[in-house]
Amino acid sequence: MVRIGIGCKQYDGVTKQPYTDERLDWAFRKRDQDPYIQGAAEYLDKAIKWAGSLGLKVIVDLHGAPGSQNGFDNSGQATKNATWLQQSNIDLTLDVLRIIGKKYGNNPTVAGIGLLNEPFPEKLGYLEPSIAKVVEFHKNAYRKVRAASSPKTAVLISDAFVNAFKWNDEYQEKGPGANIIDHHDYQVFDDNLLVLDLDKHLEQVTLDIDASVANSTHPTIVGEWSGALTDCAKYLNGRNEGARYEGKFSASPGLNNTCCAGENDFKAFEKNETLKENTKKYLQKQADVFSSKSNGWIFWTFKTESAPPWDAQFLHKIGIFPALTGGTGNQTISA
Fold first, then answer.
1. Is residue 118 annotated as part of the catalytic site, yes or no?
2. Closest among 115, 215, 111, 121 to 156, alpha carbons compared
3. Which of 173, 224, 246, 263 is catalytic?
4. 164 or 195: whose pLDDT is higher?
5. Which of 42, 118, 122, 128 does the annotation list as catalytic?
6. 52-61 tens-digit pLDDT
7. Which of 156, 191, 225, 331 falls 20 to 30 Å from 110 in CA-CA distance?
8. CA distance linking residue 321 with residue 137, whole number of Å
9. 221-232 b/e with 16+ CB inside 10 Å = b?
10. β-strands 58-64, 2-7: how paired?
């Protein structure tokens, strides 16, 4: 299975007008102020077709929403003023999801649709009202996608950086198709976790899942994780931002360590036996825990420009990526 993140940012490059429902060759909406380049539609459709020809399934995940749902660059807009909770932006997102459901939700290759990647209430204003709006959005989005999609198509709902069991009383809609809670698990975006040695990192894997996933009454997956033990990958914290690990990230005091060459160079990674062995142990521990304590996992990502611990293709090539056997059988790699 392959998870493909897409943005809410495409439109008709010829007429400059949004596509109607009847012109579903590309129906994602773009606001006048958005700078994004057109042309991704063809390749998303090709990727789904290629996956189907190989017997693979696809999760189509809405990764970027208008105004930014978290302020991170992975939303399509790095900003300290995320405005996704403005009603016009939420309405646009809901319409995009309705169209995604109509276009892709009946394709037998598409196993699921992710409603929105990593909405972050803390970045969207006062926490409790923001959480309430995120919940309301998820419920409305679920109904839009479910109404347009095959009953067999799953709907993935982000835990919004809140422990998955917190949503046990929410998202109780009945009917065919699964509501799946999507939890992302990293140990590199927190100074308190970056200071851990390898043994403590391995212990933390179980602690994190027991705290965030184990008591969820919904099917819950670890929708993102990697082999990284530091945040040293180039631009991981944003363009022109450095690493917390070296104390060079502007939003954190950070540590006073030095990133090794293998964090951003494939050949250097292969030559660094300690880094390679530590990464292998960390990967295997996560795969074992996520397989036994969740309903599946998705590794982020399949291929990178220069970041070995995040590159499943490279890690598999050198023999340290966990074997895709055992557990729930629901193991996935993101594109």
1. yes
2. 115
3. 224
4. 195
5. 118
6. 999 999 999 9
7. 225
8. 37
9. bbbbbbbbbbbb
10. parallel
